[in-house]
Amino acid sequence: MRHPGMETALVGEPGTAAVDETAIREFLAGPFxxxxxxxxxxxxxxxxxxxxxxxxxxxxxxxxxxxDAIDSLPAWVTHVALNLSRSxxxxxxxxxxxxxxxxxxxxxxxxxxxxxxxxxxxxxxxRRQREVVVLHYYLGLPVSEISALRxxxxxxxxxxxxxxxxxxxxxxxxxxx
Amino acid sequence: xxxxxxxxxxxxxxxxxxxxxxxxxxxIVARRQHRTRVRRLRAGAVAVAIVLVAFGAFxxxxxxxxxxxxxxxxxxxxxxxxxxxxxxxQPTCRVTWVPITVDGSxxxxxxxxxxxxxxxxxDGDQVVAVDIDGDGRADxxxxxxxxxxxxxxxxxxxxxxxxxxxxxxxxxxxxxxxxIDLYAVTGGANPSIRQLQVSDPTGKGFLxxxxxxxxxxxxxxxxxxxxxxxxxxxxxxxxxxxxxxxxASAQVQTTTLEIDGDRATVADTSTDTMPLAQAPxxxxxxxxxxxxxxxxxxxxxxxxxxxxxxx
Lengths: 177, 311
Prior knowledge:
- The complex is a heterodimer.
- By secondary structure, chain A is mainly α.
- In chain A, about 70% of the residues lie in helices and about 0% in strands.
- Chain A is built from nine helices and no strands.
- The relative contact order of chain A is 0.13.
- Chain B folds into two domains: about 20-70; about 90-305, no CATH class.
- Helices cover about 20% and strands about 40% of the residues of chain B.
- The chains are: A mainly alpha, B alpha+beta.
- At the A-B interface, helix 2, helix 3, helix 4, helix 5 and helix 6 of A face helix 1, helix 2, strand 7 and strand 11 of B.
């Protein structure tokens, strides 16, 4: 289940060095695209995901400047970016709707027709189920790590994953196995 | 098998893209510097507030000392400085509040998370409740609403339509600002709190019909906010602004709303280019009511703690 390389990509070494420009550049060259992609799957917007991850990195850097320890930068950034993508989307949507009336905005990329069935099915899930599905199936995290990352019990992760899996199987016409 | 398909298709759907490290590092450095500036400003503001409160308390104590007469008061008492714990009929947590005045009665508006089986859920249902008479009991409730993980809060109690009663602003914290939901409050025998709904009969407004949400943000390239005004005929209006900063100037789209109950009807719109110094940038007040925080979007600021109640 776990993707190759994700052990170091998200978990990292506990008690690693302070977050500085070097650490930021290493993150951008390493786990950044996958973390952005994961947040985009949950949030439904790549632009919002990139923005949330950039903001999370800035916060991590600022916290480190203040002396706070961040054990695993990828895990911390994933967690904070997922949180940021929630309420930020509300405002982004509201502002985007307002601006659409005056100016034609450049399209971010894919049209509805291009989206895969699984992406559409994912979008119908409640937020927490989406997060758990992406963390588990896309980033390949086991239940214990999802529990630690999101601050919810392993039992809740399992039950959420079970419900999400059932809903996705129904939506996609797949056998749950 | 669903597991195989999810692994395969999610990877295909996500399609990680290669970042431009130079641009991203520059952006992250700018964000970090902005956050540091905002934090310092807030720390300074809190220090000033503490000094002012201490001075105010000293003055009050001096005025009430033996041998002096306290000023006479009549009618309603002033609102208490701290809200009583919210009584909603079910356990709540992460409660913030602002004082309100409705039909001359002093009370509070609360934003609270409904406590779940596993304690205070970070993504739990949140509600906004009003206590008209200040006893802590919720007289009317709206919600639940979601998308509050970064911290929804009771943010301000402006009088949006000039009727002398408070309305309630609830803020959803975001990365660099807030989304503000506005609620109309009524008192009387059947108190109510209802989110303002945009009505746009002419279709010319810059706001979507439905629940009104206002951005409250001031960053390098853009800003959003709202303000009140009184037109020549005496009508109180709410102006909602969205602007782009273009060097020393700004282009601002403004929608003028007339507020009647929970209906916000688009009355006018404008698009203006003006010097940035004259642009309606958001600050720390909405229609004369102090806001819980500025434009930084950091819900973990010191001021949040001040407004929590022990539920």
